[in-house]
Amino acid sequence: MDIRTESSTESSLEILRVWPEAAICHGFIGRAGGVSTGAFASMNLSYWVGDDESAVDANWERIRREAPGLNLVARLNQVHGNVVHAATRDTAALRPAGDGLVTAEPGVMLGIFTADCVPLLMVDSRCKVAGALHAGWRGVIADIADAGVRAMLKLGARGSDIRAAMGPSIGQCCFEVDAELGDRFGREIAGAENHTRIGRPGKAFIDLRAVVRDQLERAGLAPANITSVGPCTRCASDRFFSRRAAAGTTTGLQMSFVGFAA
Ligand SMILES: [Zn+2]
What we know:
Bound molecules: zinc ion
Strand content: 15-25%
Order of helices and strands: EEEHEEEEEEHHEEHEEHEE
Strand order of the largest sheet: 1-2-3-15-7-4
CATH topology: CNF1/YfiH-like putative cysteine hydrolases
Shape: globular
CATH architecture: 4-Layer Sandwich
Number of helices: 5
């Protein structure tokens, strides 16, 4: 698999991409290059975190200039579960509760918003089916990755053809949780104990992206078709929003998106 990491830094905007085909519109958008201020500085694309609406409008204008495919973006009311919705041109504006979107309609873009959780983009370019998932620890325990793959299969994708990319999210270096949660990961997710290490007394560190990779493989994806791009959001909080870096307070959210060109 030919993986290319591209960073578009025009106007200090940063978009990480992994797939070279022009027909696949996708990217993990960084926090730089927007006009929002304070905890939302600067490329916040979420209207639902308390940011000034006109600033978010301006950010959207800017991002659409940079990525012209982003006209019709289906979004979710993300709730840390494993419900995946199929989006079409007609339903794209609904914003249902859930943590995954899939589509078989070129021109419909799928947008996922995060600030430490794992954004996961998937494509099957043979049948032009795309998927985008939000995987925080609750979603990982609920196996949102498996639900997302299944939803793509329903739309005609083939497991062996699906490529997946995980984007900037909190790394094991910074994802310290109570040891009980680390134990729960080990109990409830096969192989997760390999991606958890003991921390200070009563604490553990979880490698979320590694756990999700295992889940994707169990869902039928080829290991060579799974990639990961971008740093730990907390370590690189100057480039990406991180809730942990902001001591748990509300921050802006970065958007990751995927879809096929119309
Ligand atoms: Zn880190």
